[in-house]
Amino acid sequence: MTSPLFHLSGVRFSVPGRVILEPLDLGLAPGRIYGLIGPNGSGKSTLVKMLARQLQPSGGSISFDGKPLADWSDKSFARRVAYMPQFTPAADGMNVRELVSLGRFPWHGTLGRFTAQDGEKVEAAIERTGLGPFADRLVDTLSGGERQRVWLALMLAQDTSCILLDEPTSALDIAHESEVLSLVREVSRERGVTVVVVLHDINLAARTCDDIIALRAGKLVAHGPASEIMAPEILGGIYGLPMGVLSHPTRGEPIAYVL
Amino acid sequence: MVSWLPLSARSSAAWAGLAAFAAALFVALLQTRGPLTGPGHIADELDRVLLWYSEMPRAVTALLCGAALGLSGALLQRVLRNPIADPSTIGIASGAQLALTLATAFVPALIEFSREAVAFGGGVIAVAIILGLSWRRGLDPVTVVISGMVISMVAAALGATIILAKGEYVMSLYIWGAGSMNQQSWDAALAIAPRFAIGCVAAVLLLRPLAVLGLDDAGAKSLGVALHTSRFLILGVAIWLAANVVAEVGIIGFVGLAAPALAHAGGARTPRQILIASPIIGAILLSLTDTSVQILGSGTADIAPTGAATALFGGPILLWLLPRVRSADGRLAGMPQVTLSRVARPWLALGLLASATIVIAVVALVFGQGPDGWTLATGTLFTDLLPFRGPRLVAAGAAGAMLGAAGTLMQRLTANPIAGPEILGVSAGGGVGLAVVLYLLPVLNPAYLVLGIAGGSLVTLLIVLAVASRSGFGAERLLLAGVAIGSLCMAVISTVLAQGDMRSHVLLVWMSGSTNRIGEIEAWAGFLAAVVLISPLLFFWRWLDILPLGESTSRSLGLPLTASRLTLSMFAAVLTAFASFLIGPLSLIGLIAPHLARLLGFVRSQQLLASVLTGCAAMVLADWLSRVLTFPYQVPVGLFAALIGGPYLIWLLRRGDTHHG
């Protein structure tokens, strides 16, 4: 049994007059892919933002690799954990290679030299995400799916052991959705990268992730291997709707549907 | 529940209390007047004269002006569907004041004929310009307010220039320019009272169209309202009310903004309720302010002109109102625009840009207009003229370069292509810093002046960034926070200008952006400052790349957010301060240069360098043009640049429209 990479104890989050996340205990093991699911307003995005140090918990503690989050310096944390926000910003006239190169910032810092090794990591990330032909195109001229791959490449260039994604497919059509998530899965397997991904679609999550963490109204309602979560009574508890599960006609994987 | 104001019971009671307090304060003011010296019966007589011909008319004037402004603001906010519209934020007051300044200086007969008509004309022109600019954006509140601010700034610089050119002849204008309520007779009160009454009648007649105008255009049209006619009629009434106040007592900011907002906060919902409550609240507010100003002041001198004092409560109210402002069409003014195309070989292009700058500088040094027409200065003529032309040119170029750098920093810090020293209120904040130094220090040392401007600029920039960061640097909030703080600072500056002494003269020269006083020392100091302040920025180019991607991405990449923002803000503030010390606060070059650099296709770190060069070239060009175009007169170069920059900014706002379809 490996020790957890992220360890949360009693983590909660509230804004004046509203509790977003009830006290939560959770351990995330290294190398696995976690899917965070739940209805709108369930607190899943808040949770991933707290893991990424984008939000401070209102109480409780989160540690990463045995050290409390607050004790990590900006730079060393950015070398270990990469985060992609739900809405990626406009790239402001940068081309693909330039934007991906920003992923090396935690390694070379403000004044450090951009070394040959940095360059190699950037090229490798571009190749891995299949962006080779676009490397000199302006990011803002790419399609939504291509743009999402650029941000993924930036995270790969950042060379972290953990990747946090907040609804990476919310702006994509079905084909690109599937493509981006397969890429995430492959990369995780190749490099042993831990992934936490917020997803809307339970079927997509079950196909992509090893484990599912389900939240509802700020409470943890289910946590377990994807195959175990895909059961009518558990799904019903998550979404508050009667749900059914059937098998994919060709691949046999479970598919959830609303009754 | 019937109450005296169409507000909730609690608010009505609160306003009744405030009204009583204002009355008590006025009584206290009368009681505490210093005893007059002299033989008993003469002193008594004088006392009665003062009471009936100074104190009483002043109190009545304050009540009437407050009511007129409250009504004017309520009408403007309704008809423009803009919760921060007010005679001062949309440029009516500045337009009216500039018209009065121009008329006093050049056509005194017009002033004799009717001050109110002149002021009304100025206000109408200002509003016409603003409507023309924002019409295609559906009178988008942000566009309206930014246009209003640019118009106010250009009007202020023009006014300062005219006053400097005409000397003390016009200086008296500034005494009331800042809203001094001092009265020697009942004239002002008698002038405003009937006009306010007419305004009220007009507002009542227009009540029905006004109710419908709160809907969107389509809704109003479908209800059969002659949309434009009623809109223009209501605007006319609002301008007329505000122009009358300006003509009688000067610019009194924020009352027209605050009164309807407080009425709304107190529970007034329908246009009728707001139109009834706003004038009453406005009257109470202005009366309270005016009495306090007199009590806190000493004997004959007020602590500050009332119009400037209203800014002290008005500025915070404006900031409080910002979250209510919605873009008319949900689109942001000046949203990030996709770079059209990137320049293919940036370093070669930068070299070309640098060469062009040098060519412009040489042309500006050599060509000039003399008494005998155009001359090409060579040989001894050149060496004779160099001491006159050289320092000005170097100072203008250095200031332009620094503004180009400061503007780029601000646009990158805020990820907003329309940020700049003027728009974010940083220039005006520098003016407050300068005023503080002028007041606190007995000796006028240029180094202290620069320090004062730098301190004021930095504090302002940090406040704006803090306000904007609370809303995640939303583009609108940022711009509006800048406009709010800018108008607050301009009000403080008017206070100092109204003193009419040596200090206000220094401030006035600074406002006008004149480079006439620039000598060799200033030129060298400017040049050194530009080199010393701009070169370290090249080390921060990675920050400048990452920061515009937003807070989440910056943090995720391990960028030290607070440290980087603070460092870059300090550079931006000090650069702005040096530049505004040399060429005044209102050139708009800090907005334009980064923009031109982008249009030319420079991005990332090259944008900074290109913007520095563009700013430098633009200011050198402006300096030369201001020297030759109006020969033998000289327009201050800062003003000249603003006269070019204003239209550019406006074009930019309009372009945002076509750009998004």
Automatic annotation (TrEMBL), chain A:
Membrane topology per record: Peripheral membrane protein
Superkingdom, natural source: Bacteria
tRNA processing as UniProt keyword: no
A GO molecular-function annotation: ATP binding
Domain ABC transporter, chain residue ranges per copy: 6-242
Lineage per the UniProt record: Bacteria, Pseudomonadati, Pseudomonadota, Alphaproteobacteria, Hyphomicrobiales
Signal peptide residue numbers: none
Stated family: Belongs to the ABC transporter superfamily.
UniProt entry keywords in alphabetical sequence: ATP-binding, Cell membrane, Ion transport, Iron, Iron transport, Membrane, Nucleotide-binding, Transport
Parts of the chain that traverse the membrane: none
Protein name: ATP-binding cassette domain-containing protein
Subcellular location: Cell membrane
Automatic annotation (TrEMBL), chain B:
Keyword entries, A-Z: Cell membrane, Membrane, Transmembrane, Transmembrane helix, Transport
Homology family: Belongs to the binding-protein-dependent transport system permease family. FecCD subfamily.
CDD domains in the cross-refs: TM_ABC_iron-siderophores_like
Keyword Disulfide bond: no
SUPFAM superfamilies: ABC transporter involved in vitamin B12 uptake, BtuC
Membrane topology, from the record: Multi-pass membrane protein
Protein name as annotated: Fe(3+)-hydroxamate ABC transporter permease FhuB
UniProt subcellular location: Cell membrane
Transmembrane segments: 12-30, 56-76, 88-111, 117-135, 142-165, 185-211, 223-243, 249-267, 274-297, 303-322, 343-367, 423-441, 447-466, 478-498, 523-544, 581-601, 608-625, 631-653
PANTHER family per UniProt: FE(3+) DICITRATE TRANSPORT SYSTEM PERMEASE PROTEIN FECD-RELATED, FERRIC ENTEROBACTIN TRANSPORT SYSTEM PERMEASE PROTEIN
Record's keyword annotation contains Membrane: yes
One Pfam family in the UniProt entry: FecCD
Signal peptide coordinates: none
